[in-house]
Amino acid sequence: MTTSLLSAVLVGVGGMAGAVSRHTVDQRVVGKWSTVTVNVLGSIALGVLATAPVGDAAATLAGTGFCGAFTTFSSFAVGVAELAEAGDYDTAARYAFGTLVAALVGVAIGGAVGGLVG
Which residues are noted in the entry as Na(+)-binding (predicted)? Predict the structure, then answer.
């Protein structure tokens, strides 16, 4: 299997698992908290992947594939826009700022965990 074909398969398999996992979270976590949850968990996972000694195939499968399908910037952006369009600027700002801070903290936690593995 060529390298580009293998990468495509890894992204596809990881993406399938990420999409199913995202759907599972959506079924269990209500409203915008679902988006926050997947983005923070995905940030933790990416932090681990960025600092742990994983190979290119694992990074492609888990990082690009799984995390790419699991996390969502577009739903986050739509959520902020909907709140702002409804005139709820304070909540929109808190949601935007809080999600970004929580995701950055998630990356830091994941990075610390990944650093312990390496």
Answer: 68, 71
Q: Does the annotation flag 68 for ligand binding?
A: yes
CA–CA separation, 76 and 62 (whole Å): 21
Task: Say how many CA atoms lie within 13 Å of 5 toward its Cβ.
Answer: 2
Cα–Cα distance, 83 to 89 (Å, whole number): 7
**In the chain, where do the E strands start and end?**
none
Using one digit for the tens of pLDDT, what is the confidence trace for 39-64? 999 999 999 998 998 899 999 999 99
Is 2 marked within a binding site?
no
Q: Quick check: 65 and 12 in contact, CB under 8 A? A: yes
Can you tell me the distance from the alpha carbon of 8 to that of 39, in angstroms, rounded to the nearest whole number?
Answer: 23
